[in-house]
Amino acid sequence: MSFSQDLWQANQALFQSTLELPFNQELAAGTLSQERFRHYMIQDAHYLVAYGRALAVTAAKSDNAEGVVQFANAANEAVVVERALHGGFMRDFGITPEQFAATPLTPACHHYTSYLLATAWSATYPVAVAALLPCFWIYAEVGRDIHARSAKDNPYQAWVDTYASEEFHAAVRGVCATVDRLAEETTEATRAAMHAAYKDAARLEWMFWDSAYRLADWQEALR
C-alpha cells in the first residue's frame, strides 16, 4: 500500500461521513435549497483565494522544479476557478459582486483557510503538501459519488459536472504521487506529521460542507 493509500484508508470513516452529509445527499438529489447552495458558493469563492495562496507558498518550498510547476499551476487554477464562479454560477443564482464582497468568511471557512495558510508557511514541504491533499482528493471523490447518482434534471447538474472532470482527477493523482515520493524520502516523524496534517484538513473538509448546510455564520457560533 502506498503512503497516500494509507492516508485514505486511515480516514475512510471520515470520508464516508462526508458522503452522508445532508448537503451532499441533497445536492445529488437536486433538492438542496438555493439558499444553501448560494451560501456554499460564496464561501467556496472565499476559500479558493486562500487555497491558491497556500498552494503558491507550498510551490515556493518545493524540493524540485517539478513541484514548483505543479503547485504554482494549481494555485493559478484555484484563482481562475474563483473568478469563473463570479461570472458563472454566482450570476446565475443571483449573487451580486457587492453581496459577495459584503459576506465575511464563516467560522468554518475561516478555520480551514487559516489552517492551510499557517501550515503552508510554517510546516515543512512534505507536511504542507499532505495538508493540501484532502481538498484535491476528497472533493474529487465526493464529486465522483454525486455525479454517479445525480438525479435526472438536477438543477445543479452543471455544478455537479465540474466535480467529475478528468483534468481534476489527473491533478489528484499527481499530488498523491508527490505525497508518496516525499513520504518515501523522509523520516518516520515527518510521516506521522503528514498523517496528522491530512486528518486535520479532512476534518475541515467535512466541517465546510456541514457548515454550508446549516447556513452557519458568526452569530450562530457566538450564541
UniProtKB/TrEMBL annotation:
Catalysed reaction, written as an equation: thiamine + H2O = 5-(2-hydroxyethyl)-4-methylthiazole + 4-amino-5-hydroxymethyl-2-methylpyrimidine + H(+); 4-amino-5-aminomethyl-2-methylpyrimidine + H2O = 4-amino-5-hydroxymethyl-2-methylpyrimidine + NH4(+)
SUPFAM superfamilies assigned to the protein according to its UniProt record, in alphabetical order: Heme oxygenase-like
Keyword Hydrolase: yes
UniProt domain Thiaminase-2/PQQC: residue ranges: 22-214
Presence of the UniProt keyword Membrane in the record: no
EC numbers on record: 3.5.99.2
Pathway: Cofactor biosynthesis; thiamine diphosphate biosynthesis
Top class in the EC scheme: hydrolase
Entries under NCBIfam families matching the protein: salvage_TenA (TIGR04306)
Family classification: Belongs to the TenA family.
This protein's name: Aminopyrimidine aminohydrolase
Species whose genome carries this gene: Comamonas resistens
Name of the gene this protein is made from: tenA
